[in-house]
Amino acid sequence: MYAFEYHRPSSIDEAVALITSDDIQFLSGGQTLIPTLKQRLAMPDALVDLGGIEALRGIRREGDHVIIGAGTRHAEVAASDTVAGAIPALAHLASQIGDAQVRNRGTIGGSVANADPSADYPAAVIGLGATVRTNRREIAGDDYFQDLFTTALEPGELITEIAFPIPEVAAYAKFAQAASGYAIAGVMVARMPGGAVRVGVTGAAPYALRATALEVALAADFSPAAAKAVTISADGLNSDLHATPAYRAALVSVLAARAVAACGG
């Protein structure tokens, strides 16, 4: 580690006011940022710890949405009766993140802001058509993830909460890297009120995206067989020591089929 200033504000306005340059960063759960600091891959002049801002925490239902504060920890989402009652797939997803230590420190806002290509929550943001709310505006989930570790957030912009529409039925399935729990590929399938089908994919590409070919197939026939029959292109998919692009492409269809089966399709 190295010397830097540390701030722990008690309000959103105070936190945002402290971001006076690109060399000052927000700190939420710290599950990515702290290891990055230790390796000196990032060396900010100051950290603004969001952990003391109660307004960023909490889960509530508002009409046909579940609203989750950005500072809410993964374990809280996984254990929430509100989430389990309205979107059980989201509670299940949260329960699959990392390990117990990560789930009790990491936050949903930190995960979505970091936009790791193998993180789980991005599949839910895309698959459920969530809205990312910040201190300045609302960002549609479809517009939020833009490239590898790149989002629509502007400098100094802070995620305050995420609004998830409640689907008719949804499920999340992933193929996890054994040591880290990160998704080699993860798929959220949701059938929304009115019958529209959304499929959000994480882990397979540089950033979370919709699998439109699967959406079209499942809108016509919401069944595991229909999902398996879809051929996903490997073009542009991730390649690393864990899986080739072709393997990830095959996983997306298989995981989508599993998710549909879990939905009862």
Automatic annotation (TrEMBL):
Signal peptide: none annotated. The keyword Flavoprotein applies. PROSITE patterns: FAD_PCMH (PS51387). It is an enzyme of class 1 (oxidoreductase). One of its GO terms (molecular function) is anaerobic carbon-monoxide dehydrogenase activity. The keyword Oxidoreductase applies. Gene3D superfamilies: 3.30.465.10, CO dehydrogenase flavoprotein, C-terminal domain, Uridine Diphospho-n-acetylenolpyruvylglucosamine Reductase, domain 2. Its EC number is 1.2.7.4. InterPro entries: CO_DH_flav_C (IPR005107), CO_DH_flav_C_dom_sf (IPR036683), Diverse_Substr_Oxidored (IPR051312), FAD-bd_PCMH (IPR016166), FAD-bd_PCMH-like_sf (IPR036318), FAD-bd_PCMH_sub1 (IPR016167), FAD-bd_PCMH_sub2 (IPR016169), Mopterin_DH_FAD-bd (IPR002346). Keywords: FAD, Flavoprotein, Oxidoreductase. This is Carbon-monoxide dehydrogenase medium subunit. It comes from Roseospira visakhapatnamensis.
